[in-house]
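Cross-posted from the bioinformatics board.
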Amino acid sequence: MTFQTHTGNRGLVLEEKLIFEQGEAGRSGVDLPDPEPVKSRMGGLERDSDIGLPGLSEPQVVRHFTRLSQKNFGIDSGFFPLGSCTMKHNPRLNEKIARLPGIADLHPMQPESTVQGALELIDQCAHWLLVLTGMPAVAMSPASGAQGELCGMMAIRAALDARGENRRRVLVPESAHGTNPATAAACGFTVDSIPATADGRVDLAAFEAKLGDDVAGIMLTNPNTCGLFERDVRKIADLVHAAGGYFYCDGANFNAIVGRVRPADLGIDAMHINLHKTFSTPHGGGGPGSGPVVFSDALAPFAPIPYVVKTENGFHLVETADEKDGKKPFGRLKGFHGQMGMFVRALSYMKSHGADGLRQASGDAVLNANYLLARLKTKLSVAYPGYCMHEALFDDDFLKGTGVSTLDLAKAIIDEGFHPMTMYFPLVVHGALLIEPTETETKESIDQFCDAVLSLVAKAEAGDSEFFKNAPYLTPRRRLDETAAARKPVLRWTPANA
Amino acid sequence: MAKKFSKEHEWLEINGDVATVGITDHAQQALGDIVYVELPEVGKKLAKDGDAAVVESVKAASDVYAPVDGEIVEANEELDANPALVNESPENDGWFFKIKMSDASQLDDLMDEAGYKAFVEGLED
């Protein structure tokens, strides 16, 4: 190693072969007696070749998977400021509750009388979401943010069909998550994008000009993906309603406003809530997502089955509903009850924080982002003026003339021991760097990140672009050939001697 | 005949009532290494600004729009096997499709080479 990183952090240098490359024929972790001869009933279809499992001792297996886990970088390992992803700490209390035998050992097909507590838990989780959003109804079953969007837009489609109206145009701001236009298109709508103003919000005049009797609704993220609160959101809601459309809100950034703004007061008709972002359930490969959707009165009848109700005889999971119940569910999105394990964790988070704690968490998330913004804008160019909400957004203007790109800078940030921020998104910002520290981080960890980034920017300004072009230096693998991986993907491992 | 250019960074080479369409050198540079191109089917009728093709790079997937009304008469099958042609020869061998124009007057809305160059320089400020 020919240089020192700013933090003194080192990348993970352990080299690890594939488990199939480590095996040796005949080696085994267990010593089992030879099986008794059996008469095959496979009618000659039994396999006659080796199944190709590697021969490994138990410590080899343990070390292999331990080393692989050490190569993984997650929120449990360090600072993970991936913008619009809300990579917050998953409190261990959540995990303790989720592992209680009475919860962990449940089966979704158990008789209802034996799972009353679990149904009550879903009902309570739903209740918290309704109180926090001020909305009258919620569908708990969607299994991700994207499925939540699908749920909301299918409800809008069902409501329009019930009105007998063939409205097919959905307005989506340019800075939206890519899933928004994709969802609208998947539901048979056409997407019409709304330009942004110079300060990163929806251009109200352009939006108003696009309204018409063919508009099904608007899909808006608030706070938006520029980390800014849409200050005209009430007006947008009134205008889209006056034009006969619905207001879908992408709730991916709900973490910035929990306990401070009730989506119902903004005129929203449907909004998904990422339990795996806002309510701390694990995500990013650590656990399934969960995207419950809250609905206004206008859309509530179209919410999907199943849902939990409280009756005289206890809690009941409603699996079919129709007009005699005052419902017109558009169908079912997910098997069984939804992501039960995530409801447990989210409710643990909500109840352990309490209303005051949730309100403080959103405040701390916004404070952390603004602290980071204030420190970094001394060197980095902000995309939009003013304070931000939960994430700070920069463009690549500060790199102009250095020969260093946003990507190069991100690679160097890895060497400093941080997961890079979201890059090149939102698309409306050139070379974007979107940084969301969340309330998880201490001032010390944010300072360490800012010091590292500022030192890298100084290095770029000093003209050392070669250093950046070759970063990262300390990772198990350096820059991967993404082009070859996409053009000539190798999707299956084959032994070297095959 | 000289080339025409759109604000969506497409070039058109006009031959009678047929225009050969591709993306500009500036566009391929901005996109980075192209890994996939989805081309329109021959016979497909497109309106100006309608989705004609999709181009995917290691950085992003982008739509390519029909710069004029018309019908697709040929697509560059070479790009299926070798999308890198778009990087190597964006304004020549890396063409996307040929469209039979139904309204040649729409060409008047497009830029000439000098106009496009000024347009790109304006974007970089």
